[in-house]
C-alpha cells in the first residue's frame, strides 16, 4: 500500500500564481515595473564568486540593515524566503489541529493554506464594500482563535484600513490571540491615516508585522521577506525556521535595496501617478473600478453575455495583456490588474475601451 499524506494536506488547493507572459505584458503578479535598485544588482554580482559558501544562517547583517532603516531592535526581526515562509513559520509555531484563524473575506490566499497545513480552520469574515469589517472580525473570535491575519493594504482588493480601525481590532482581541499585520504594500500607501503597524508590533506582546522585498524593492525572484514583533514570538519562529532559510544573494540584495531609498520613492511616485491615470480612464468605460492604494487595482465586470470577467480576460490576453483572474478569492466577476509601465497601462485602457464598446 502506498504512503498516504495527512487528510488535511489532501484538502489543500495549491496556490496558483499569476500567469507569465511569453510575449506582451505581464500584469498579473503585482511586480515592480521599474525593476529593482541598481545597488541590489551590483550587490548580487559581488556574491556570485562565493556561491560555494553557506549563507549567514541568522541573516544577521540583513537584520541589522532593517534595524537601522526602521529604527527597530534587530533581535526582534526575523527574515524569511518571502512573507510566505514567515506565514508558514507562524502556522508551525502557533497552530494545531482544531485551532482557528480569522481573516477578512478576500484576504490573501496563503493564510488559509498555512492554516490547512497545520489542521487549523479558517474563518473568513464578510467584508463591507471590499473593506475588512472590524466588528464582524471581532464577533468571529472564539476560544479556538489563535491568529488573526489582516492584510493592510489588502490583496486583491487594493483597499486599506485606517490605523484607528486596526488599533480597534487589536484592542478587542484577547491577549493570547496573535494579530498578524501583513504590510506587503505599505510603501505604496500615501494616506495620512495609514500605518504599517510597526509601532504596534514594537509595543504589544501579540502583534507581528510582516513586510516583503518583492514589491517596492523589486526583488520578487529572490524571495525575501521579514517580520518584526515581540521577542517571544520571534523566538518561537526561530525555533521552527529552517537553517539557512534565506539565500546569500537575497541577503546581499536586501541590504543594498534598503540603502537605495531614492529607488523606492521613485517606484512609489511612478505607481501612484499611473494609478491616478488608470483608475478614472477605466471607470469611463462604464466598469466598476475600486479605489486602490497598492500597485494594482480591481475591476468588476457585468455578468451579461460577452462582457463578463472571463470574456474580458480572454480579450486582454488577445492584446498581449496578462492580468489576474481572481476566482479563487471568490470574486469571479472581477480581474486584478497590476500597474505596469506607461505603455502597458495605456494598452490596458485602450483594450478595455474597445472591449466595452464592442
UniProtKB/TrEMBL annotation:
GO molecular function list: histidinol-phosphate transaminase activity
Coiled-coil stretches: none
Domain Aminotransferase class I/classII large: 26-347
Record-linked SUPFAM superfamilies: PLP-dependent transferases
Cofactor: pyridoxal 5'-phosphate
Protein keywords: Amino-acid biosynthesis, Aminotransferase, Histidine biosynthesis, Pyridoxal phosphate, Transferase
Catalytic activity line of the entry: L-histidinol phosphate + 2-oxoglutarate = 3-(imidazol-4-yl)-2-oxopropyl phosphate + L-glutamate
Record PTM N6-(pyridoxal phosphate)lysine, positions in chain: 215
Keyword Transport part of the UniProt annotation: no
Pfam families found in the cross-reference section: Aminotran_1_2
Family: Belongs to the class-II pyridoxal-phosphate-dependent aminotransferase family. Histidinol-phosphate aminotransferase subfamily.
Subunit structure: Homodimer.
Name recorded for this polypeptide: Histidinol-phosphate aminotransferase
Native species: Ponticaulis profundi
